[in-house]
Amino acid sequence: MTPKKKQEQAEGQKEGENATITALFTKNRVTTESSDAARELYNQSRYGTLLESGKVQLSLIEALYLLDKKKIKVVDSRDKDVGFEALLKKGQKTDPNLFVRYAVFRDIRNKGYIIKTALKFGGDFRVYDRGVKPGEDHARWVVFPVHEASALTWYDFSAKNRVAHSTKKRLLLGIVDDEGDVTYYEVRWLRP
Fold this sequence. Notes:
This protein is an alpha+beta fold. It is built from six helices and ten strands, in the order αββαββαβααβββαββ. It has helices at residues 3-14, 36-45, 60-68, 84-92, 98-110, 154-166; strands at 21-26, 29-32, 49-50, 56-58, 72-75, 114-117, 125-128, 141-147, 170-176, 182-187. A hairpin with a 5-residue loop joins strand 3 and strand 4.
């Protein structure tokens, strides 16, 4: 980056404009440049994982969201821009349910909650109360995105409920329709 562009970018940040962070897409991973703006994105909103190099590694869903919000610019290994639709299409090759998962992620993030992956809990996502950052307290919900046309057996439902209960979280089913709108159902164990 030329000194003039760096100065323009710094002036833009001072005026309150959002800086665009460049991120590299390789093999279903998206890694930001090592910059103050990228680290601030992690520190303020807990997107991705902060690496020792100062870069932030984003999940594909986080990258899609930030690309949609124009917070990042994604490029491939040849330094070509990767747009939202192209990134979604590439991601769907390995995760056919990516759009449904993204719709839930986008909706929850837009409502002001921090949402992270929950693979180690056996779920898709974990969601923190507003104002709570991961590490400060535990997540309140474990979220399972489901398309409205897909079938969920009682065994699947029971397994999801047990995962939430065993991790001391509430089960949240995010039902996504064909337009990408999400309806939530919270499930809890009750003792009569």
